Amino acid sequence: MNKKVENIGNTYTSAENKKKQHKQMRKRVVRKRITLFGGLLLLIIIILSIMLVTQKQSNNDDAVERQQKEQKYQKQQDEELALKEQLNNLNDKDYIEKVARDDYYLSNDGEVIFKLPGENKSDTKSKAQNDDK
């Protein structure tokens, strides 16, 4: 049942064989081009994806840094307000007199200051610090 098939050496079969070879070569070239352009497209997609991920991470880092700086700025503004209030208090004669009496036990002419046995200087300082806050 096995028979060998031989090609007839006429011009028609040789032309058909050349067409088949040409089609096969054409398919190989098309396949190589598709593979090349597909690979380039895949490479571009991968590069863009990497750029997207790194940009997103960078944006997140910048957002965290911005939030930290905003908090720091808010604290500095609060400090500035406290310092301005303290400066206004230091320009007030009544406040200075009160601090001098409480912390340094200074008195006006004719006044006598009595220190009670239960009071410490550290207690009065902590009270004065609590008053400032």
Total strand count, please? 0
The major beta sheet can be summarized as: none
The rounded Rg comes to 46 Å
What is the N-to-C succession of helices and strands? HHH
Beta-strand content bin? under 5%
Which shape, going by the Cα principal axes? rod-shaped
Mean pLDDT: 85
**Poorly predicted tracts of residues:** none
Helix content: over 70%
Q: What is the rounded distance between the termini?
A: 110 Å
Count, helices: 3
Structural class: mainly alpha
Textual characterization of the structure:
It comes from Staphylococcus ureilyticus (Staphylococcus cohnii subsp. urealyticus). The chain has 133 residues and is mostly helical. 78% of the residues lie in helices and 0% in strands.
Tag the structure with descriptive keywords:
single chain, mainly alpha, rod-shaped
Layout of SSEs?
Blueprint: H1 11-90, H2 93-104, H3 121-132
Write a compact overview of the structure shown.
The protein is mainly alpha-helical and about 130 residues long.
